[in-house]
Amino acid sequence: MSFLKHEEIIKRCEKINQSYDIDPSFFDGIVDELLDSEQDTETVILSGFQRLLTEVDHEIERMEEFTSMKPNCFMGCAFCCYFPIVITKMEAKMLFRSIENFSEDRKKAIYDHWENYYEKQQDKLQKAMAMDYEAPETKLEYKKLNLPCPMLDPETQLCMAYEVRPIPCRTYLNYSDPQVCADQHMPKEPFSYEFLYQFYFGSMNELIQALYENGEDVFVDYPMDAWSYDYLPAWIKQWKEGTLSEV
Question: Is there a contact between 52 and 27 (Cβ–Cβ < 8 Å)?
C-alpha cells in the first residue's frame, strides 16, 4: 500500500489555508435550532455539546474531500491517546453529564475503569499533572510518560466515550503510514485541525450564554467555567472526589 509523504501532506494542507473557506453557518445553525426548540435546558446543552463536536468531524471530512486526503487511522490504533488532553471546566462538566446519561452497563464500565486507572497510574499522573500545559515542551514530555487517556479501554484500545470525546482527539489525524505513530512520540506526518476549536467552542459558548442570560439553569458556573482549563485526568479526579463544584 502506498502512503502520502510528509511533503505531499503539507502541500495539500496548504491548499486548505489558501483556498478553503470554513462556513460558520453549519455551527451557527445548530445553535439557532436548539435555542428555538422546546426541549428542556439540559437536553439543549448536551445535544448542542454532542452535535457541535460531531460538526467538527463533518468539517474535517469536507476539508479531506477538498484536498483528496483520507486518514489512515484505524480502529484500535491508540497512539494519539497518550497525548495531553486539555479542556475547560465547562466542557468537563458537559462530558460527565453526558456519561451519566449512558446506559447503566456502560457507565459502570467507565467508572470501574477509572477506579483502576487512578490507582495504577498514580505515579505517572502525579508527574503529568505537575506539568505546565501551556509550556511548549510539555506535549513531548507528557507523551514520554506513556500515560494513557483515562477514557481509553486498556483491553479494546477504544475510547469508552467516543461520541463525546474532546476536540484534540478528533482533530489529530495521520494521512501517512500509520507506523510512524508507533515509531515516534511526535511524528511529523500527522496533521492537526485544532483551529476548528474556535468554531466549536465559540458556538458552544454562544449557546450557554444565551441560556444563561435567559435565566435558565445551565448546570455550570458561567462564565468562569468557560475559561478554566486543565488536563482531562485532573477534571475526572475532581469529579470522582466530588470537588468539581456545580451550581
Answer: yes
The series of mean pLDDT values per 10 residues for the chain, 247 residues long, is 87 93 97 97 98 98 95 87 97 97 97 97 98 96 97 95 96 93 91 95 98 96 96 97 76
By CB neighbour count within 10 A (0-12 exposed, 13-18 middle, 19+ buried), where does 230 fall? Answer: middle
> Positive or negative CA dihedral for 211, 214, 218, 223?
positive
The residues that bridge with 192 in the sheet, in sequence order, are 172
The whole-angstrom separation of Cα 82 and Cα 147 is: 6
Model pTM?
0.94
Alpha carbon 161 to chain centroid distance? 10
CA distance 49 to 87: 13
Phi/psi for 192 (5° steps) reads: -110, 130
pLDDT of residue 33: 98
H or E element: which one contains 92? helix 89-100
